[in-house]
Amino acid sequence: MGRAKEIIVKVIPSKIANDFVKKHHYSGKVVQNSSLHFGAFLDGKLHGVMSYGSPLDKRKVLSLVQPSLWNEMLELNRMAFDDYLPKNSESRCIAISIKLLKKNAPHIKWVLSFSDGTQCGDGTIYRASGFFLCGITKNQGQIILPDGSITMDVNLELRMSPVISKKWNPQNLPRKRRIKELGCRYLSGNMLRYIYLIDKTCKITVPTLPFSKIDEMGAGMYKGKKITLQERKNTGAESVMVAQLTSSQKEGFDSTSALK
Q1: Reported pTM
Q2: Three-state DSSP class for 228?
Q3: Which of 247, 236, 239, 235 is nearest to 2 (CA)?
Q4: What is the pLDDT of residue 237?
Q5: How does strand 45-53 pair with strand 225-226?
Q6: CATH number for region 2-138+190-250
Q7: What are the pLDDT digits (tens) for 161-174?
Q8: What span, in angstroms and rounded, lies between the C-alpha atoms of 203 and 64?
Q9: Dihedral of CA 43/46/48/50: which sign?
């Protein structure tokens, strides 16, 4: 584990967390629903942020785990680290943040998170942190605008309202047609859904997928580059993460699912 043992994870103010996320997250954006922020500190300085909050539409995801009341789940909706921390420290930081959730918010039963296989990765960190893979779907939300910027399709009217108002009433056309005719397009790739059960008595109500399904669906991505799990395994990139996971388990952190 090396110096990763020296990392301190604690709650930090949203202003500090959001500034860090804007600087270090690949999207450069924060999630407004984030309400709880953990900072990862080493040598007295902030080098990582994990932001938790309510999903954008909780009604669509609450049934993924049962029993589960409205206030008994959170989404890990932003995670950003700089290059200062030791390699593969991220899974340790997630494990500590979940341990803090269990201690200070015992009503939280499970955590949801998504991995962006269109721009970032397929969830290596989540798999090393004991999350279950519970869905792989083609991207149907993120679009790239004519100026090269990226947004969600539901935000199209907000980002391009001057253009839209000159052409048509946006309410009269289906969203996908508006996107195409305005010169926008959906990003190619997949979104991967992960679930972590804090309360082990809860049950995931949708099928959990073997990690091999990522390669079967061509959804592999690491640090913004298309690459399969098998290719990473062949080069030894995954073996370091396995060693990280094993070490975390020995130290009592709740990372219970090995890479398979």
Answers
A1: 0.81
A2: coil
A3: 247
A4: 56
A5: unpaired
A6: 3.40.630.30
A7: 555 444 545 555 67
A8: 8
A9: positive
